[in-house]
Amino acid sequence: MALSCNLNRYLLLMAQEHLEFRLPEIKSLLSLFGGQFSSNQESYGKSPFWILNIPSEDIARNLMKRTVCAKSIFELWGHGESAEELHSSLKSYPLEKMVPFLHPDSTYKIKIHTFNKTLTQEEKVKRIDALEFLPFGGKVTLKDPQHIFCILEDYGLNPNCIPEKPHNIYFGRWIADGQRELIQSYSVKKRHFIGNTSMEAGLSFIMANHGRVKENDVVFDPFVGTGSLLVASAHFGAYVCGTDIDYNTVHGLGKATRKNQKWRGPDENIRANLRQYGLEKYYLDVLVSDASKPSWRKGMYFDAIITDPPYGIRESTRRTGSQKEIPKGLEKCPESHVPVSLSYHLSDMFFDLLNFAAETLVLGGRLVYWLPVYTPEYTEEMVPRHPCLRLISNCEQKLSSHTSRRLITMEKVKTFENRDQYLHLLSDHFLLYQGHNSFREKYFSGVTKRIAKEEKSSQE
């Protein structure tokens, strides 16, 4: 059936990657720009075509200036499950909404976009000619027209079973494209300073969008690494800072990660990464510090905390401490004490991270972080909670057949009080997650079993 006309109805053409991250990104960005996610579409799933109700074209354009999950947005003029239904829908669209874009002095062109099928030039022309009933008064110009219109046809998701006719056909006026080009222009392959776990550009921008990072925000990363998340936040105009326990990484020293390069150069550091993209003015500082023992005085400093904690796979989970247990009541170590690196359990790491976010985020600020899980044992109840933080979204990225990591977005909804520090330790959520302290062992156990299985099958 054709959809009824809605003056604020838009069609989003989504990218077909990071599918689980798309909806939270769009919802976060709409809320950032004063809109609210509204749609009559029953589900989104893997479909690249999303119909949304957006309050204004300005909000739609602002959305596209940020999203890396959407390719384009169109003002939707008509929709149907067949050409006949599409034409009927277009005929019911208010003429006064069309006229500003179809007057005689204007230039325009009509494009065809098909998903999961390729049309011949003859088929494309036939579809365009069928729209002759629309009151186009302007001149067709293929190069740099004032207005671009698009017919979009959806042939489903199965490339092995392509239907003769599309499931849905849309027609709309192109408004703007998304920021997909950022994925290439900020690729870590071209980046000056990288490490073993540098976050890929696409996911870095998705995390910044989930965190609703905006101009003049202060964004913090307690496990900064080579600064990929700082780069993405700075691109959106935020001032960035962070900490990391690894002195060599913070100062760009030691062995290089790049192939055919033995040692890092004198200018390989986090500041240089921001300088590479013209973002150095947004760099505050990065300190060598232990995330389990924050050196910040109490207060609300940060608009967003965006981080990728170590899981113990390619980077170890560490904190400073002493091999001998410090007696209770001894608040200060002797001057001769030299901290050593101790293991840092995942449950302790996330306990510290959530408490730090609850203390230092402004109200409405967001915490965005990755949570590694052993898939066979995972349930949503295992996601750590905090009385000051509300869970916004929880998206999965597969790492292997038996492990994944989940992108958790939380928002500060309550001012931190001292009694809040340990409340969430009593919840079943935290106790359940303690079982994932052995994530590293379970990860490599699965790898070993898979290799053994492959070797056995190759010998048979």
UniProtKB/TrEMBL annotation:
InterPro entries to which the protein is assigned, alphabetical: DNA_methylase_N6_adenine_CS, RlmKL-like_Mtase, SAM-dependent_MTases_sf, TRMT11, TRMT11_N
Record localization: Cytoplasm
Annotated Ribosomal RNA large subunit methyltransferase K/L-like methyltransferase domain residues: 190-320
tRNA (guanine(10)-N(2))-methyltransferase TRMT11 N-terminal domain segment(s): 9-180
Alphabetic keyword roster: Cytoplasm, Methyltransferase, RNA-binding, S-adenosyl-L-methionine, Transferase, tRNA processing, tRNA-binding
Listed EC numbers: 2.1.1.214
Enzyme class, spelled out: transferase
GO biological process: methylation; tRNA processing
Single GO MF annotation: tRNA (guanine(10)-N2)-methyltransferase activity
Pfam families named among the record's database cross-references: Tmrp11_N, UPF0020
SUPFAM superfamilies (UniProt xref): S-adenosyl-L-methionine-dependent methyltransferases
One GO term describing the cellular component: cytoplasm
Domain of life: Eukaryota
Primary localization class, coarse: cytoplasm
Recorded catalytic activity of this chain's protein: guanosine(10) in tRNA + S-adenosyl-L-methionine = N(2)-methylguanosine(10) in tRNA + S-adenosyl-L-homocysteine + H(+)
Keyword RNA-binding: yes
Subunit structure: Part of the heterodimeric TRMT11-TRM112 methyltransferase complex; this complex forms an active tRNA methyltransferase, where TRMT112 acts as an activator of the catalytic subunit TRMT11.
Function as written in the Swiss-Prot or TrEMBL entry: Catalytic subunit of the TRMT11-TRM112 methyltransferase complex, that specifically mediates the S-adenosyl-L-methionine-dependent N(2)-methylation of guanosine nucleotide at position 10 (m2G10) in tRNAs. This is one of the major tRNA (guanine-N(2))-methyltransferases.
Similarity field: Belongs to the class I-like SAM-binding methyltransferase superfamily. TRM11 methyltransferase family.
Name of the protein this chain belongs to: tRNA (guanine(10)-N(2))-methyltransferase TRMT11
Native source organism of the sequence: Cavia porcellus (Guinea pig)
Name of encoding gene: TRMT11
